Amino acid sequence: MPILSFNDVTIHLGGREILSPTRFEVEKGEFISIIGPSGCGKTTLLRAAAGFVTPSGGSVSRQGKVITGPSREVAFVFQDYGRALLPWRTVEGNISLALEAAGVPAGQRAARISKVLETVGLAAHAGKFPTQLSGGMQQRVQIARCLAQEPELLMMDEPFGALDAMTRESLQDELLRLVREQGLTVLFVTHDLEEAIYLGDRVIALRSNPTPQQPSLAAVIDVTIPHPRDQLSTKEHPDFLRPRRDLYHYLGHD
Ligand SMILES: Nc1ncnc2c1ncn2[C@@H]1O[C@H](COP(=O)(O)OP(=O)(O)OP(=O)(O)O)[C@@H](O)[C@H]1O
């Protein structure tokens, strides 16, 4: 059974159709990249998948059950790490939030926090406050907080969009490693075509202003580049260049 199904989901916001009927499924352990022009509904699609937005038509199911609201089984990483982390809590304190919310007993929290901090390479920074960390490290704290939650689904909304190119590439590689080690299922929104292909098992391309002839779902492209991937050879691989060219056209760059 798919972990997530969009069953002809339509979404209207502010009296406008943002998402025209959209159907796709996500299997456990898949990494789905979502790409499209600004305002085409990428965040809205993530929010619907997380139960924050109710479809005006169709339904979203998780493990075969129609979702009716938010769940602890879904964790969110936002682009704006500065606002996602509480500045008055240390790194450990921020991660503890997810465990407190999930009702994990105090005696079990410390071990889970050190495990996720180890996983994201921040064990030495547990007692620091977010402002004492670089942007990339703060983003890793957000990711660690999500991992501590042990979610079924990880939603990432342009998580690396505010980082410099080198930090972004190293976090992409770290994320790929985590996904493979932990068998995570991820929906990852990005503006960056190369990032979408580099990370994804599939790329979903959305278009703005859908019509019956040109629905929101412009394309779903399988990415067959083998793992492990690396920034140099993967991006020269024919299975990288082909979807890059196809998606470039789908996104209206003809
Ligand atoms: N609560 C809302 N009420 C009305 N309109 C909304 C609401 N939320 C989003 N929209 C509109 O829906 C459209 C899609 O927004 P969304 O944030 O999903 O796009 P996006 O593809 O993620 O954009 P970006 O790439 O710029 O982040 C936009 O035109 C936005 O203005």
Automatic annotation (TrEMBL):
GO MF annotation: an example: ATP binding
UniProt cross-references to Pfam families, sorted A to Z: ABC_tran
Entry-linked InterPro entries: AAA+_ATPase, ABC_transporter-like_ATP-bd, ABC_transporter-like_CS, ABC_transporter_ATP-bind, P-loop_NTPase
CDD domains according to UniProt: ABC_NrtD_SsuB_transporters
Keyword set includes Signal: no
Residues that span the membrane, as ranges: none
Stretches assigned to the ABC transporter domain: 4-233
Keywords: ATP-binding, Cell membrane, Membrane, Nucleotide-binding, Transport
Superkingdom: Bacteria
Family note: Belongs to the ABC transporter superfamily.
Protein name: NitT/TauT family transport system ATP-binding protein
Source organism: Pusillimonas noertemannii
